[in-house]
Amino acid sequence: MASSSSSKLVIHVCGWTGCPWYQRAAHIASSLSLLYPTRYGSELHESATRDEFREQLASYRSLVPKSEAASQHESSPFVYAGRTPGESTFVGGCDATVEWARGLLRPAARRLESRTVDDGFREDHGFEYDVVVIGGGSGGLACSQECARLGAKVAVVDFVKPSPAGSRWGLGGTCVNVGCIPKKLMHASALAGEAMRDDAAAFGWDVARRDVVDWGALRTSVQNHIKGLNFEYRVALREAGIDYLNRLAAFEDAHALEVRNAKGETSTITAARFVVAVGGRPSALPCEGAEHAVDSDDIFSSKKPPGRTLCVGGGYVALECAGFLAGLGYPVTCMVRSVALRGFDRECVSKITDDAGRRGIAFQTGRVPTKIEKVGDVLRVTDSTGDTAEYDTVLAAVGRRADAEGLRLENVPGASESLDARTGKLKDEQLPGAPHVYAIGDVLEGRPELTPVAIEAGRRLARRLFGGGVDEPVDYDYVPTTVFTPLEFGTVGLTEDQARAECADLEVYVSEFAPLEHALSEARAARADRAFAKLLVDKADGTVLGFHYLGPNAGEVTQGFAVAMRCGATYDDFISTIGIHPTNAEEFCDLTITKASGLSPAKAGC
């Protein structure tokens, strides 16, 4: 994906005001520029009348290479596209524009463009390393190992600065140590407890009822698993011939890094290329007493059980942590400044928060903490409404900030131009002012903050740098993800609001149903646990624009359908596929109720 405005594909739509075909083509161009602003731009050349448009046709034709199609086209609209005025190509009229735009958006048909810029690399560069990767998280490890496989001499520099609360961890980055892995394990523990409390008796098991987890035993099991992964990563680097430096890095000049160990001792290493993969860290609460709060860097290794917990934030980290803590038996309150899960499908988010409320999670919306006081062993929190309440733990989950500022990029000529002072992120995958410096993962502006995205970006960058010029840009469209709230949420593609803005004729298929594995549980019936399936379909050609699923095993269900989405699957592809019975995923092969029909999406039986 291009990162500068000069590389946008600008779509020019020429026509007259009263022409409905011009208006439709203009809507398509404007929608593309709105939904994909880094990739597409639009310019409308509108004439007041048909005659005025025809008078301008010659000038429009002069802007595209001579072709029979362009020279014979006389109707409104006249559409052409290009990145610069001198390289525009003729698209056609309205129908041709519709088909052309569909081709752009269909992943299987779209060829992503190369962004390779000469970074000055030469085999006889004279530095210690061909490339130094700064950061030992998912993206950095994947990139370094692929570089080494391709014959490069590689070093990984990784040093974890303690969190404000003093938490430390080893190699593997946020995902392994304080993110995806411990989160999923604690989520699994919460699900196991839920199954034991709510389901086991119905399935014939005689188990003693337990209301709260043994936090110490869970913490120990999770941390032991993580330490095993840390060791495996170090072994993998050694076996790949990669030098691992457990040190904090900062640039001395364009090709030299100062590396500092835990004792404060420094040395210098040099490289022809650098990959910045430092990821990010949680943002602190902007209130008095913020030092009394913990964050996701701390919660998984806390020796003290969380007890009564206030989760501050409305993103997926806040809701996931609130979900597994409540599932483990702790009283949880979520304080959300505005809306929960911003950017996700609003109907699905509403179902998630309703479900969380039924599970005992209290939501306080439209509030933020203004003061946290430590009173004995408890934390007294005052919020923006003036209310106060006491908690054992305050968990800050109000966003993350990239960790690039400490790299002293100002010592690399041209590099600091790519640093966004507000977010701490780098704006470009290859820094324009310092093309031998690259960035991948969460430190990069405008990329999904997801481990598999960082891994794929790292591997492809390695092949680009040392794979004989192979350039395989990552396609950031149709990236699937799952939010591991108690009611799990898998999604890929557009939200309903986005689809309605893009698609002139949208069909929304929905189904609400009880998963079979919950059918015998009176507790789940009383709580009204329901799964939800939703497909957003362009009626013009049946293309599925959005996939949303709420229910058990959402990650497993969504992953498979994401492949179909990337291949341009249609509604007919979904319903003509034989479902696997009895599963939750098969619901997507039998969706027939639309919102427009007014019929209830609630389903009974199999």
TrEMBL record:
Which cofactors does this protein require?
FAD
What are the residue boundaries of the Pyridine nucleotide-disulphide oxidoreductase dimerisation domain, all occurrences included?
479-588
FAD/NAD(P)-binding domain spans which residues?
129-458
Q: Which InterPro entries match?
A: FAD/NAD-bd_sf, FAD/NAD-binding_dom, FAD/NAD-linked_Rdtase_dimer_sf, GSHR/TRXR-like, Pyr_nucl-diS_OxRdtase_dimer, Pyr_OxRdtase_I_AS, Thioredoxin/glutathione_Rdtase
Whether Hydrolase counts among this entry's keywords is no
**Gene3D superfamilies, A to Z:** 3.30.390.30, FAD/NAD(P)-binding domain (3.50.50.60)
One cellular component term from this protein's GO annotations in UniProt? mitochondrion
Descriptive protein name: Thioredoxin reductase
Give the source species.
Chrysophaeum taylorii
